[in-house]
């Protein structure tokens, strides 16, 4: 694994409500929703530049409003994920953004969600949390250049420090493709004093893009630097089910953010049109997956999903 230091284990009895049995709605495929349903141009698939002006902030607010409605209907809590999946140095550089620009964007994202947090508190029965969202250094569908855990911690720490400085409740890293980067995120989260969750993506066979089985990846990260919890995202529920080896490790998966499409990552990458599947079919597939994850508390969508899909999944889960 290449890890040279070990994080302090997460204390039992974490204050995060999703670890105390509170079910929490989270959002869907932000970027695909903006591009295909709202006609927004997102160079480098980055949503964070929308924070720079009032029109962009209004678009984001309208997007999150729909998920607050889902949470209110479900009688659940709400986990607001910042639109900062691409707001890291490599992707920021493609857009001409340096360290100061990224710090400003990451803080601004948390501040926007904090304002919404206050507004949604009277509409949503359960807790409302603000999560700073980190993404992989690379593409998210392929491994690309690998980092050691310490290198990954150094890489992700500035973004997580921005989240912490703005007062985020936790950090969530989505669409990670190999264990070392996940370990690095956890180390960085501990360094800046934030609870941290990490999410792997899997291919159609249930394995990570680097070839690890999902249970192997969870075990490797837990052995080096245990996060507060794990998620799986950017895969259809059937693909996640394919990777669910038996064992108590399943209890560590607290969240899923699934794709509407059954296509592989390679097929999705090459597609010209959005495959948004069928919300009812996705809800049925997610129900099969939910039944296999005893600790599941955070439920949302990823590529190709919007509030319709998340609502359908919650209606099926709450029934």
TrEMBL record:
InterPro entries recorded: HCY_dom, HCY_dom_sf
One Gene Ontology biological process: methylation
UniProt keyword list: Metal-binding, Methyltransferase, Transferase, Zinc
Residues noted as binding Zn(2+) in the record, renumbered to the chain: 234, 302-303
One Pfam family hit: S-methyl_trans
Provenance organism: Microlunatus flavus
Ranges of residues in domain Hcy-binding: 12-317
GO MF: metal ion binding; methyltransferase activity
Gene3D superfamilies according to UniProt: Homocysteine-binding-like domain
Protein name as annotated: Homocysteine S-methyltransferase
Necessary cofactors: Zn(2+)
């Amino acid at each position: 694994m290449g890890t040279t230091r070990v994080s302090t284990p997460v204390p039992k009895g974490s204050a995060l409500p999703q670890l105390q049995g509170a079910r929490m709605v989270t959002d869907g495929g932000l970027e695909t929703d903006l591009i295909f349903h709202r006609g927004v141009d997102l160079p480098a698939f980055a949503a964070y530049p929308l924070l720079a002006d009032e029109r962009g902030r209004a678009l984001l607010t309208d997007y999150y409003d729909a998920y607050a409605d889902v949470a209110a209907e479900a009688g659940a809590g709400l986990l607001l994920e910042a639109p900062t999946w691409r707001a890291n140095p490599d992707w920021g550089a493609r857009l001409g953004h340096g360290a100061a620009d990224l710090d400003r964007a990451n803080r601004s994202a948390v501040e926007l969600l904090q304002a919404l947090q206050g507004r949604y508190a009277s509409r949503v029965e359960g807790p409302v949390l603000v999560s700073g969202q980190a993404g992989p250094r690379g593409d998210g569908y392929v491994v690309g250049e690998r980092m050691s855990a310490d290198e990954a911690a150094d890489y992700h720490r500035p973004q997580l420090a921005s989240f912490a400085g703005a007062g985020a409740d936790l950090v969530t890293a989505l669409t990670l493709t190999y264990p070392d980067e996940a370990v690095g995120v956890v180390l960085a989260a501990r360094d800046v004093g934030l609870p941290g969750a990490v999410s792997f993506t899997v291919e159609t066979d249930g394995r990570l893009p680097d070839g690890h089985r999902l249970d192997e990846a969870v075990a490797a990260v837990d052995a080096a630097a245990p996060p507060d919890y794990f998620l799986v995202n950017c895969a259809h529920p059937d693909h996640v089910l394919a990777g669910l080896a038996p064992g108590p490790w399943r209890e560590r998966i607290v969240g899923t953010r699934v794709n509407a499409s059954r296509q592989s990552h390679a097929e999705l990458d090459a597609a010209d049109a959005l495959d948004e599947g069928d919300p009812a079919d996705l809800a049925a597939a997610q129900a099969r997956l939910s039944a296999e994850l005893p600790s599941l508390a955070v439920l949302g969508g990823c590529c190709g999903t919007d509030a319709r899909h998340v609502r359908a999944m919650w209606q099926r889960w709450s029934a």
